[in-house]
């Protein structure tokens, strides 16, 4: 069965996600316009600047189509993608795509000088995964349907809710593609 | 154990800015306009390059109060400029918590021989380059991001185009050389051999390379993207135009959709006058900021 996964291509670490997904054997497409969603089995929302991405989603009328796409297909959001997927963002009026029952804090570890990398245990993925955190958010708390996949210093940094997957760090910035393979398996299982 | 200030964390920060526009701002109000327009970061300055040019004299790091004001105004990353070789200005900016430092030829160099040892810092640096020699020397010193120098504050894209085209064509040449030819190439460019090897292997620079120095219109931004820039810095182009908010939004859109010419035409309609701009031949040797470092 051939699997086709899209990477939202408005801004940010797009090509790194493309390389990571290609290593799973999936066909990969960059999504800049509504018509690019057609025929996709799953979507990755990459890291970048969440404020910028939201603005561009609105400008191109991609916001509602992606919400609709997400009701029928798996979505994986990393860093800025996590913020876009959250139902609640601390100190902010409304959410963005509001796909996952999670409450998040932006730039939660501090500014760039506090950005770091650390080894993580990710349930079902790896117990030695190098997480690269860049002005990263974390999840303050999750709803009952959300499965916490990884915790770093008491902070939730990866989670899954049904066909939605998210993490606060950047799995696309290392050569370790196990998290992307996990998402590929999710997409494949969902399609079957 | 958490590790801060690694190459991956510093270069990764620039990776997140790709496809975006970084705008020069001089106060909180401009910073908000930039953020609302969809800028991926702002550069906090005391004066935009066109005004630095007009004012003359020695241009230094901005008043920390301006940098602080901008940091408090927006949630996107804030960059600030330090003079070339001015280790203390850079340390001050790092201590204030700015997200990226531009060791910049727009300011008057503090050291006309040496650049800052950027590996010694936790905060990442961006530096300007005109060719592969400058690009790789800056990477060797620890720059985590590059930009073309162009000619700042002129609103004239010609130098940025020259610099980006030259770096791209030099990269293409390097990928075609054999390992023994590469050492001579390194010698001729004054380039660190190890970094050239890495470029040959990957077929690209190991860090992100943005366009800067002369971007004045949405079409200018799209041109730089089409030539292979990873993103765009706009200095004087936005707040020296008739309608900064409209210009800022249009430049962001044109950067994302740089191949959608109908769209670029649409968003360029009725934008008002771009910054006036300067013709290169009117600049004397001492006016050329790009020649201030090598």
TrEMBL record, chain A:
The keyword Hydrolase applies. GO terms for cellular component: cytosol; glutaminase complex. The keyword Membrane does not apply. Keywords: Glutamine amidotransferase, Hydrolase, Lyase, Pyridoxal phosphate. Its EC number is 4.3.3.6, 3.5.1.2. Pathway: Cofactor biosynthesis; pyridoxal 5'-phosphate biosynthesis. InterPro entries: Class_I_gatase-like, PdxT/SNO, PdxT/SNO_CS. The active site is at residues 79, 170, 172. It comes from the Bacteria. SUPFAM superfamilies: Class I glutamine amidotransferase-like. It catalyses: aldehydo-D-ribose 5-phosphate + D-glyceraldehyde 3-phosphate + L-glutamine = pyridoxal 5'-phosphate + L-glutamate + phosphate + 3 H2O + H(+); L-glutamine + H2O = L-glutamate + NH4(+). GO terms for molecular function: glutaminase activity; pyridoxal 5'-phosphate synthase (glutamine hydrolysing) activity. L-glutamine binds at residues 48-50, 106, 134-135. Pfam families: SNO (PF01174). PANTHER family: PYRIDOXAL 5'-PHOSPHATE SYNTHASE SUBUNIT SNO, PYRIDOXAL 5'-PHOSPHATE SYNTHASE SUBUNIT SNO1-RELATED. Belongs to the glutaminase PdxT/SNO family. In the presence of PdxS, forms a dodecamer of heterodimers. Only shows activity in the heterodimer. Catalyzes the hydrolysis of glutamine to glutamate and ammonia as part of the biosynthesis of pyridoxal 5'-phosphate. The resulting ammonia molecule is channeled to the active site of PdxS. NCBIfam families: PLP_synth_Pdx2 (TIGR03800). This is Pyridoxal 5'-phosphate synthase subunit PdxT.
From TrEMBL, chain B:
It comes from the Bacteria. D-glyceraldehyde 3-phosphate binds at residue 165. D-ribose 5-phosphate binds at residues 24, 153, 214, 235-236. It is an enzyme of class 4 (lyase). Residues 7-212 form the PdxS/SNZ N-terminal domain. The active site is at residue 81. GO terms for molecular function: pyridoxal 5'-phosphate synthase (glutamine hydrolysing) activity. Pfam families: SOR_SNZ (PF01680). Its EC number is 4.3.3.6. Pathway: Cofactor biosynthesis; pyridoxal 5'-phosphate biosynthesis. InterPro entries: Aldolase_TIM, PdxS/SNZ, PdxS/SNZ_N, RibuloseP-bd_barrel. It catalyses: aldehydo-D-ribose 5-phosphate + D-glyceraldehyde 3-phosphate + L-glutamine = pyridoxal 5'-phosphate + L-glutamate + phosphate + 3 H2O + H(+). Keywords: Lyase, Pyridoxal phosphate, Schiff base. One of its GO terms (biological process) is pyridoxine biosynthetic process. Catalyzes the formation of pyridoxal 5'-phosphate from ribose 5-phosphate (RBP), glyceraldehyde 3-phosphate (G3P) and ammonia. The ammonia is provided by the PdxT subunit. Can also use ribulose 5-phosphate and dihydroxyacetone phosphate as substrates, resulting from enzyme-catalyzed isomerization of RBP and G3P, respectively. Belongs to the PdxS/SNZ family. Homohexamer and homododecamer. In the presence of PdxT, forms a dodecamer of heterodimers. This is Pyridoxal 5'-phosphate synthase subunit PdxS. It comes from Pullulanibacillus pueri.
């Amino acid at each position: 069965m051939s699997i086709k996964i899209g990477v939202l291509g408005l801004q940010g670490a797009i090509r790194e996600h493309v390389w990571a997904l290609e290593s799973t054997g999936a066909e990969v497409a960059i999504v800049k316009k509504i018509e690019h969603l057609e025929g996709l089995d799953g979507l990755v929302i990459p890291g970048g600047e969440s404020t910028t991405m939201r603005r561009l989603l609105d400008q191109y009328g991609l916001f509602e189509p992606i919400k609709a796409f997400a009701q029928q297909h798996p979505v994986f959001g990393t860093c800025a993608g996590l913020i876009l997927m959250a139902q609640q963002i601390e100190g902010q009026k409304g959410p963005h795509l509001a796909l996952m029952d999670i409450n998040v804090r932006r730039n939660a570890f501090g500014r760039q000088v506090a950005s770091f990398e650390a080894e993580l245990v990710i349930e079902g993925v790896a117990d030695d995964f190098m997480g690269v955190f860049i002005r990263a958010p974390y999840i303050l708390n999750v709803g009952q349907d959300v499965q916490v996949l990884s915790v770093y210093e008491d902070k939730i940094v990866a989670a899954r809710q049904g066909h939605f997957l998210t993490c606060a760090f950047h799995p696309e910035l290392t050569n370790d593609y196990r998290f992307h393979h996990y998402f590929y398996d999710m997409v494949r299982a969902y399609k079957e | 154990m958490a590790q801060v200030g690694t190459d991956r964390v510093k270069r990764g920060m620039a990776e997140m800015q790709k496809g975006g526009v970084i705008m020069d701002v001089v106060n909180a109000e401009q910073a908000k306009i930039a953020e609302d327009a969809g800028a991926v970061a702002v550069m906090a300055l005391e004066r935009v390059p066109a005004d630095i040019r007009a004012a003359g004299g020695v241009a230094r790091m901005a008043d920390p109060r301006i940098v602080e004001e901008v940091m408090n105004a927006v949630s996107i990353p804030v960059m600030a400029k330090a003079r070339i070789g001015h280790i203390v200005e850079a340390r001050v900016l790092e201590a204030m918590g700015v997200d990226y430092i531009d060791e910049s030829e727009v300011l008057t160099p503090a050291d006309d021989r040496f650049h800052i040892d950027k590996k010694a810092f936790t905060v990442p640096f961006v530096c300007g380059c005109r060719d592969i020699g400058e690009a790789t020397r800056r990477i060797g010193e620890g720059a985590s991001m590059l930009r073309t120098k162009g000619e700042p504050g002129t609103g004239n894209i010609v130098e940025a185009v020259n610099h980006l085209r030259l770096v791209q064509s030099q990269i293409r040449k390097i990928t075609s050389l054999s390992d023994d030819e590469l050492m001579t190439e390194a010698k001729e460019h004054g380039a660190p051999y190890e970094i050239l090897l890495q470029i040959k292997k990957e077929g690209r620079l190991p860090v992100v390379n943005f366009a800067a120095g002369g971007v004045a219109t949405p079409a200018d931004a799209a041109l730089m993207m089409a030539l292979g820039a990873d993103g765009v810095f706009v200095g004087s182009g936005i707040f020296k135009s008739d309608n900064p908010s409209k210009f800022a939004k249009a430049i962001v859109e044109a950067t994302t959709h740089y191949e959608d010419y109908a769209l670029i035409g649409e968003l360029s309609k009725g934008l008002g006058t771009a910054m006036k701009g300067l013709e290169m031949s009117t600049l004397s040797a001492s006016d050329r900021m790009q020649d201030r470092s090598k």
